[in-house]
Amino acid sequence: MDDAPAAMQGGGMKHALLFLMLLAGPARSDGVAGDFDYYVLSLSWQPSWCRTTGDGRDARECRRGSGRDFTVHGLWPQYEQGWPDYCSTGERDPSRRETQAMADIMDPGLAWHQWQKHGRCSGLSARDYYATLRAAAEGIAIPAPFDDLPRDITLPPAVVEDAFIEANPDLAPDGITVTCKAEALAEVRICLTRDLQPRDCAPDVRRDCSRPRVLMEQVR
Asked: Is-contact 24 203, C-beta < 8 A?
């Protein structure tokens, strides 16, 4: 133990946990557009988001009859540890028409925010970032049992993960992460190379929901 970092010597469990948190790799403000290692495609379970957030905002996508199952949250450039965000770039921002054109897979306002926070770090133009985001989303098959879910169900997070792997045989267990918020499924995150091929997630992304079961609410 003599070679252990000072934070883990004599400081007890609290200091050890603090040290491990520091290793987790937060966002780095020194990000350079185009300088990253891989992507994370984040897919949100919309019914959960609507119940916790969207309904309170009277979000258009949460109104009865307009609901979806999994929708795109974003495509995030990642480092092997940490991630860049809000990178400086000379690329122009997307036009209203370009963001509105994303409405079939994600809310246009969210598409704009994702460009500002993550797309700028891709090194792509706004048009190409949106095209890459769309290609990534279209390259992942949503498991048939989750399509237009007719009723609320609860199931282990591992079952959600296994269903995605069955529907997408190129995915591996270490290349997909299932997250939760309180008792409900939140997101499925899939790690992709810069060429949008499946790959393992780095350890700071590979953090599955620890609950034994998660709620998946029916699509409205």
From this structure: no
Burial of residue 43 (number of CB atoms within 10 Å: 0-12, 13-18, 19+): buried
pTM of the model: 0.83
- Contacts of 133-137 with CB under 8 Å at 24 or more apart are 133/72, 133/74, 133/75, 133/102, 134/102, 134/105, 135/196, 136/39, 136/41, 136/75, 136/192, 136/196, 137/41, 137/43, 137/72, 137/75, 137/105
Query: Parallel, antiparallel, or unpaired for β 70-78 and 38-45?
Result: antiparallel
Describe the chain by its helix, strand, coil percentages, rounded to 5: 35, 20, 45
In terms of Cβ atoms closer than 10 Å to its own Cβ (0-12, 13-18, 19+), residue 170 is: exposed
Separation between Cα atoms, residue 178 and residue 9, nearest integer Å: 34
E strand or H helix that includes residue 174: none
Average pLDDT across each block of 10 residues of the chain; the chain has 220 residues. List them in order: 35 38 48 94 90 73 73 96 93 94 93 96 97 98 89 95 97 97 94 98 94 89
